[in-house]
Specification:
Blueprint (H helix, E strand, L loop, with lengths): L1 E2 L12 E2 L3 E5 L5 H8 L15 H17 L2 E3 L7 E3 L1 E6 L5 E9 L13 E8 L8 H15 L5 E7 L3 H9 L3 E6 L14 E7 H20 L4
Parallel strand pairs: 8-9
Antiparallel strand pairs: 1-2, 2-3, 3-6, 4-5, 6-7, 7-8, 9-11, 10-11
Helix pairs in contact: 1-2
The structure holds coenzyme A.
The site of coenzyme A (COA) has 22 residues, from strand 8, helix 3 and helix 4.
């Protein structure tokens, strides 16, 4: 993953690149994709009832998307020149296919997380059904964890999901986050599986630094093994 620069709002320039993904600011031009994403019952299974009626679809287009587009930014340098929006659209580098969105925002914006320091950043993601199972969520989330610690000054990256959301938990584990606690929010209309609670995962800067050093040492060990 390598950060790339660019400030022109139209078209939104990529902010992060991975092997297969471009992450760029989410814009109002993504509305149709977001409506499709947020109205897919499979995608929303662990997130809440999908907006299915015409008026509910309007809510996504008229309220949710503008809120996401207008959400804040993580300042990534002292001059504030390079900023990472809280919501990033993900598309394929090959062909520019819209895959979904990733989130990185201060936990102070999260309804489910304790009021920790704003330097704790919450990680999230929502991908279109057709994009599942290709490692995209892990690839994008790893890029954001890296950016959180190397650019956005995070002291901790945290995430929550339903305990029964196995795919999301696996993504978090593959990004190095560890289970912190299981908790039981009170919901007006609990989703299937809510009785198992929600889980919080976290990764501190110290843990992330150690894992990076470990990975470098392993790579260097591999390089120093003589050819047989
Ligand atoms: C959660 C989500 C982002 C995962 O996306 P993805 O691109 O399929 O994830 P990846 O391909 O990176 O897979 C990550 C791991 O999860 C595993 N996984 C994926 N789907 C799974 C499932 N349904 N059950 C069990 N494991 C699953 C993968 O096998 C992989 O682990 P492995 O490498 O050890 O095999 C995607 O399912 C999604 O957008 N769901 C709807 C929105 C959502 O629930 N977001 C999270 C809310 S907190």
């Amino acid at each position: 993953m390598a950060p790339v620069s660019g400030t022109s709002p139209v078209p939104a320039p990529p902010l992060l690149r991975t092997d297969r993904l471009l992450l760029r600011p989410l814009t109002s031009g993504d509305t149709a994709h977001i409506v499709a994403l947020h109205t897919d019952p499979d995608v929303m299974r662990h997130l809440g009832p999908p907006a299915q009626s015409g008026s509910a679809t309007d809510v996504v287009a008229r309220e949710e998307v503008p809120r996401m587009v207008a959400a804040g930014t993580n300042h990534t340098d002292p001059d504030g020149r390079r900023q990472l929006p809280h919501y990033l659209a993900a598309e394929t580098r090959d062909g520019g296919r819209f895959l979904g969105w990733f989130l990185l925002r201060p936990v102070t914006d999260s309804p489910l997380l304790p009021r920790r320091s704003p330097a704790s950043l919450e990680l999230g993601y929502r991908l279109a059904r057709a994009a599942w199972g290709h490692g995209y969520a892990t690839e994008g989330a790893r890029a954001l964890v890296h950016a959180a610690f190397t650019e956005a000054g995070a002291d901790r990256v945290v995430a929550t999901t339903m305990a029964v959301n196995t795919a999301s938990r696996r993504v978090l584990e593959k990004c190095g986050l560890r289970l912190v606690r299981t908790f039981f929010p009170v919901w007006d209309e609990p989703l299937e599986g809510a009785e198992h609670g929600d889980v919080e995962y976290g990764l501190t800067r110290a843990e992330w630094t150690r894992s990076m050093k470990g990975a470098q040492a392993t790579a260097s060990d591999r390089r120093s093994v003589p050819e047989q």
